[in-house]
Each structure stands twice: as structure tokens, then as C-alpha cells.
Amino acid sequence: MKDFPIPVVAYGPGSQPEDEELQFMELPSSMTMFELPSLNVEADPVVVAAACKIVETLRDAMQATPLSSTQIPMIEFSDKSPDVVRLLNQTMGEGEVSIAVRGSGQFRIQETVFASVWRVNEYAADARLIGDTLMACAIPPMVTRWAKEDVVSDCPLPEKSPGIMNALSVLSEIVDKSKAYKVGDETHVVNLTLLPMSPEDMDCVTSILAVGAVTILSRGYGNCRISSTKLANVWWVQYFNSMDTLILNTIEVGDVPEVAQASQEDYEDSIERLGEWLMVMQEPEKMES
Question: Is the pLDDT of residue 160 over 90?
């Protein structure tokens, strides 16, 4: 996982009105507590061998495929034995990042304990599981794709009303940067924590940007909640401390925020750790117990 894109700062004197609760974009209020995977030593040797073959295939594909490649190592689970899938779920565990994608496509995406290795579940409108894939990449491609679904390239700014101080200037900056953004450009960050934003300001910004199709929860460096918005290439990023108190509130114009993406170091480390996973699973003592 990447470090914070900008330093965490505390509220400065006069930067926020006292005794007022700001209204933020609606996002999930809880996060899963992740645990390291454990080996099921009573697993059927045939099931273990099949699971090892899947992981070995993925590891080898990762070794042969750079993280920057458009070719993504992936394995479809829909044709795999439920016992094999269950064992992989138990031993690959859940990592730092969870993603929900809502729109004409419905996805639930969970990073495994191997950073850059993701479980991607796709659901039909009636909640049936129609796709179950293991893939290795910085961020699953459907996250970027669906974040762009039904977005707008411009939005009219509202008239100034009582209580609004900085919302219109903030929105004007965000809209201009959104229009100008091209893939590969440096991310533009607006740090709302440093600005005197009234409740009316926050209500205005929230209503104009609105909630998009993608919500990301990350526990990499503190708790981080990320939501795409209805304005193209614009993301709302909020960092919380262990007491779930908002400590950094930013709007980013760019691609999927880096804090949610696996890095090259993550990718290389996971290749090594997948090899260690295979060694443990293939130990004769474990297989015989």
C-alpha cells in the first residue's frame, strides 16, 4: 500500500467552526477486521493439491507479467471445486482493501492477505453469483471502468446562499481540474481539512459532487474511505483514526487514489510470499496429518 498522499494534519485554529458537526458524504461506517490465513491441516490431499496448482499458476503468471502490463494474471473459480475454493478462501484470507461497485454492474472485491492479489465476485441483479475470479494487479480494472459510469464532465455551480463561504471556489477548482485531467496526469488534491468549511459549505459540495458507483475501504495506514463521485475523475478521500474520528478530508482529481492501489513492492513481495504459501501447503508432514 502507498503512504498518505499528503501529510496528516490537525485542525488549525479557526479552520473549523466550533460545536458544529460537519455533514460528510454518506459512506460505509464499519470495516472488516482482517486476520492472517491459517492452514487447514485436515484438508483432503487432493483438494490441497488442486489449490496449490491454482496458486502456483497465479504465482508463475505474476513472475512473467509486470505489474504495469495490461495483461492481468487471473484464474476463474466458477469451474473449480467448492472444496478447493473454500480452502483457498481460508488460507489466502482477507487483506487491507475492500471494494464495492454498484451500477449496471455489481461487484464485491476483496484483497487477499497477499497485496495485489484480489478476489473479484460479480453478481446479477437478483444477487446470484455469476463471476468469481482471482486476479493480480494494482487495482481490478472494473473499478476504474465502473467509476466512470454515468459520470458528468461538468456541473453547474449553485448560487451563493447564507452560510456558504468557500464551497463555490472549491467546486470551481475541482470542476476545472476535472475537465483538464488526462490519464497519466499528476493527481490534484484539495485538502478540505485546511479550509474553513461551514456545514453549509460541506452540504453544498456533497450535494453537487454526489456519490458515485465505487466505494473503497482501506486499512493500510489508518482507516481510509474512498468514494468515486458523479463528476468524472473526482474522488472523495477521508482518513480516520482508531476512534473513527475524521483526521484528513480531501478531494482528489485523478485516477483511482494511490492509497487503494497495490505498489510494485507489494506485487514483488506477494510473489515471494505465494512461494512460501506453496512450501507450507506442500510440506509432507502437513499433507499426512
Answer: no
